[in-house]
Structures are given as C-alpha cells and as structure tokens.
Amino acid sequence: MPIYTGKTIEEAKQAAGAALGVPVDQLTIKVLQEPRRGFLGIGRRPAQISAEPIAAHKPKAAKEVKTPASSAPVKSAAAQAPAKPAAAAGDDLDPAVIKARHAANLKKVRTAGDQLVEYLQEIFKNLEIGTVPTITAVEAHAITVDIKSPEPGRVIGRHGQRINALEQLSNVFMNYHGAPKTVVMLDTSNYRERRRQTLHELAQRAETEVVASGQAVFLDPMPARERKQLHKELEDNPHVKTYSHGREPYRSVVVAPQN
C-alpha cells in the first residue's frame, strides 16, 4: 500500500484521502509510525500511514478446484528443492564483508555529521555567537567537529559547561539521525588539548592533597572522556584510588586514599 505522511495521524489520513479521491471513512488505514515532536529539533518525525480504499479489500470468490482421486500427491517446490548448505560461521568475518560494513558506517557518520554541523550552526546563531563548525575527523563510530569562532570563550562557556553540554546534545543528535553509538568530540581553539594538560595537573594536585590529608577529594562534575583520563592518570598510583560518583550530567571523580 502507498505510504502517506503528515504532522499528525489525522493530517496523514487527510493526505491519503485527497490522493486516493475517497473520503477518509472509506479507507483501510494502518499506522506505520506515530509522530514525535522531538526535543530541540532532535528526534522529530512525522506520522506515517498506509491506506487504500475499503473496496480493495473485498474478497474474491474462490474457485473450486477438483482433484482427481487417482492423482498422486504433488510435493511443493520448496519440498522438492534440495536443501542449501548453511552459511559457514566465519562468512560474516570475510574481509570484503568487514570492509563493506566499515564503509557503510563511515557513510552514516559522515551523513549525520553534515546534519550535525547545520544543527550546531543554528544553535550558535540563536546564541548570537559567530562560528564555523567543520568536521575534522570521521571514524566508524566517532566524529570530531572543530568550531572556529572569534569568541572561543563563549563557545566553551564557564568551566567548559557550554561545549560539554553541546557535545552531549550532539551525541543524542547523531543517535537520532542514523548514526547510533557515535562518540562526538567538539573542539575550539585547541581547547581539548589544553584541557587534557589541565586534567593531568589536576590529578597530581588531587593526589598530593589526598596523601597529605588522608581525606578523599571530590572533583567537579565532568564528561565521561575527562573522567576516564583522570582514572587512567592515577590507576597505577600506590597511594590513591579513584572512582566515579553521582549521576549524569553531574557525575564526578573521587580521589581517595588507597587504604
């Protein structure tokens, strides 16, 4: 059956009626997709239905077919055909298959990434911040967007809150636009590299404070990538241990005495 769309189910029904030239109450309708308003433009989708006139569903009279009593039973084509050997367990690991899947994933990430760039431009336009977001790296499940701006401080926000919030929003955007489980990294004016150095120094200061005081140190909330770096920085330290505390987006790292 043809598919019709609209902002609502009712609007899709009206579109189907107009296209088929019959009243809505004389259509057989099947809802294929419920509409969704989305959040900040993410996840928005229209209603989708399939429809055809009710008359198209009237059953045709079945013709009686007589089978001679002496006729031998006939096997179906499926029964007569020889069974095909099952695919080998390693077929899906064929290098050509892996390469094709990798290329398909890259294409999905690139396509959704282009849409993400437009989405970010619209957000910064509403914030009255001049920016030029550009994709600088694409992997099968990761993408990096560099945001060039004469006002990088406004892009970053206080303690990185704005760029980190937009990064989380970008991950959701990619998930809803055909590239699920894609890790997005937003950067501007080499902020991420400078931030890595800051976290390295923060880990050293936290270790010194914990060893000196014997008390745990609770650090400020930060994104998962930054928490991972802190855990890595101190994982082999014999004097302290680390663990994450709280719930997103306020999850933070705790540096505590080893014993």
- Biggest β-sheet: strands ordered side by side in the sheet: 1-3-2
* Helix fraction by DSSP (H/I, runs of at least 4): 25-40%
Structural class: alpha+beta
Tertiary shape: elongated
Largest sheet: 3 strands, antiparallel
Strand content: 15-25%
Element string (H = helix, E = strand)? EHEEHHEEHHEHEHEE
Rg over CA atoms = 29 Å
The total tally of domains equals 3
Number of helices: 7
CATH architecture designation of the largest domain: 2-Layer Sandwich
Task: Determine the CATH topology of the largest domain.
Answer: GMP Synthetase, Chain A, domain 3
What's the count of strands? 9
Whole-number mean pLDDT: 84
Function: A probable RNA chaperone. Forms a complex with KhpA which binds to cellular RNA and controls its expression. Plays a role in peptidoglycan (PG) homeostasis and cell length regulation.
Family: Belongs to the KhpB RNA-binding protein family.
InterPro entries: Jag_KH (IPR038008), Jag_N_dom_sf (IPR038247), KH_dom (IPR004087), KH_dom-like_a/b (IPR015946), KH_sf_prok-type (IPR009019), KhpB (IPR039247), KhpB_N (IPR032782), R3H_dom (IPR001374)
Subcellular location: Cytoplasm
Keywords, separated by commas or semicolons:
about 260 residues, alpha+beta, 3 domains, GMP Synthetase, Chain A, domain 3, three-stranded mixed sheet, elongated, three-stranded antiparallel sheet
